[in-house]
Design goal:
heterodimer; A: 311 residues; Rossmann fold; 2 domains; four-stranded parallel beta sheet; 9 helices; B: four-stranded antiparallel beta sheet; 2 helices; 9 strands; binds zinc ion; Asp_carbamoyltransf_reg_N (chain B); pyrimidine biosynthesis (chain B); Asp_carbamoylTrfase_reg (chain B); metal ion binding (chain B)
Chain lengths: 311, 142
């Protein structure tokens, strides 16, 4: 099915074939960016950021500008026309005419879905509270595909705050739709992956999962290590935090038993969970990940705008 | 026993667990309709011992979906020409719109009037509904 004119609110709205299509096109644009420099000439991207997220916004803006389009929008709901109290439905009814595609970031969960019910142009969810962030998931998937040449038969470890980590939940749900995946969940017991999500993942594809509190325990078996931030304020007691915070700092010492082709990912920004000494290791791909995020957004928007049918 | 004459045309909500009749009366906003309505409480019942019954005379447009959420023993009798024209068992509704609120404080439905709460029943044995907007589960309690 064509992506032209369609919204993207939840990554699970995309079939595996559609995900593959977006990723393949994203990698094609990454390799030959000059071929795509003008494909969105005359198109306008509207960025409706009800809460600041500079990285996500700049990634979308860069993606549109790299295709020859233009951007307009706001990045702070308080200083914009979308002032407090105005319904999203009304904002969309007006702004819908100003752009050919809208990306919305909102602190309220479900806000982009509401927007999509009133929009005539495609809406992309740029993150809604702790709920969904589909273009981060696409970014993660393209990084996996680029480095592994496939998204299947992989053992993926998620480390850090697995309870509140939106990027982890979104990626995990999507990855569990691919064949023969195994997951390792590394987190403090207070920040374990939610049970309902675990049940859902296990049921979806009969996937194998392991839960542990030790980062190094399964290091030698995993293909991908997805690190996330642990925030101090998530802990109920200081002592527990102090005990665990160091065990989740990835350094070269902890990587000594890891596979040579391990893929180390992080949605960024990182605080201290990956030691800078890891940055120059060939397995560290988190900056490449941020870079690929631009190209996968180019592919997505080009398909939604219908300037490219498929690849 | 207290007798209430049978109605010629209307709706009889029968086999309500004793004590829940008033809640249903309120939830269906029956105090706001103009047709004659009676609420019978603690009527003796062969199967339940005691039950509540609501009789509404005339044709009234009511959303009876929520009855399944309140009490699954309920039977709805649609009366026409003095006879039971249709007998309906109530069920847990699969889709629910607007009847209760999403428990997630970060959900868009809690702040935006255009986002009317909308849920789908999760088949897990509990009366849990998944929010259409934020996907959080809300357990329905009267
Ligand atoms: Zn909700």
């Amino acid at each position: 099915m064509s992506l032209k004119g369609r919204h993207l609110i939840d990554p699970n709205q995309l079939s595996l074939a559609e995900l593959d299509n977006i990723i393949t096109l994203g990698l094609e644009i990454y390799r030959n960016p000059n071929h795509y420099r003008e494909i969105c000439k005359g198109k306008i991207l509207g960025t409706l950021f009800y809460e600041p997220s500079t990285r996500t916004r700049l990634s979308f803006e860069s993606a549109m500008l790299r295709m020859g389009g233009t951007v307009l929008g706001f990045s702070d709901a308080n200083t914009s026309s979308a002032k407090k109290g105005e319904s999203i439905a009304d904002t969309i009814r007006v702004l819908d005419d100003y752009a050919d595609l809208l990306v919305m970031r909102h602190p309220r969960e479900g806000a982009p879905l509401l927007a999509s019910q009133y929009a005539t142009v495609p809406i992309v969810n740029g993150g809604d509270g702790g709920h969904q962030h589909p273009t981060q998931t696409l970014t993660d998937l393209i990084t996996i595909h680029h480095n592994k040449g496939k998204i299947e038969n992989l053992k993926v470890a998620f480390c850090g705050d697995l309870l509140f980590g939106r990027t982890v939940h979104s990626l995990l749900k999507t990855l569990s739709r691919f064949p023969n995946m195994e997951f390792v969940f590394i987190s403090p017991s207070e920040l374990k992956i939610p049970k309902h999500l675990k049940d859902e993942v296990i049921k979806s594809n009969n996937v194998e999962i392991v839960e542990t509190t030790f980062l190094e325990k399964h290091m030698s078996e995993i293909d991908i290590l997805y690190m996330t931030r642990i925030q101090k304020e998530r802990f109920f007691n200081e002592e527990e935090y102090v005990k665990l915070k160091d065990s989740y700092i990835l350094d070269l010492q902890k990587l000594r038993n890891a596979k040579e082709d391990l893929l180390i990912m992080h949605p960024l920004p990182r605080v201290n969970e990956i030691h800078p000494e890891v940055d120059t290791d060939t397995r560290a791909k988190y900056f490449e990940q941020a870079k690929l995020g631009v190209y996968v957004r180019m592919a997505l928007m080009a398909l939604q705008l219908g300037v490219i049918e498929s690849c | 026993m207290l007798e209430v004459t049978s109605i010629h045309k209307g709706i009889v909500i029968d086999h309500i667990t004793s004590g829940k009749g008033l809640k249903i009366f309120q939830k269906l906003n029956l105090d706001k309709i103009s047709s004659p309505v009676v609420l019978l409480m603690n009527v003796s019942s062969k199967t339940l011992g005691k039950k509540d019954v609501i009789k509404i005379q005339d044709e009234v447009d009511l959303d009876l979906t929520m009855l399944g959420l309140i009490d699954q023993n309920i039977t709805i009798n649609l009366i026409s020409q003095g006879e039971i024209a249709e007998k309906r068992q109530v069920k847990l509704p699969v889709k629910v719109k607007g009847l209760f609120e999403c428990k997630n404080p970060r959900c868009i439905t809690s702040v935006d009037d255009y986002a009317q709460s909308e849920f789908t029943l999760v088949p897990n044995g509990k009366i849990q509904y998944r929010c259409h907007y934020c996907e959080e589960l809300t357990e329905y309690k009267l």
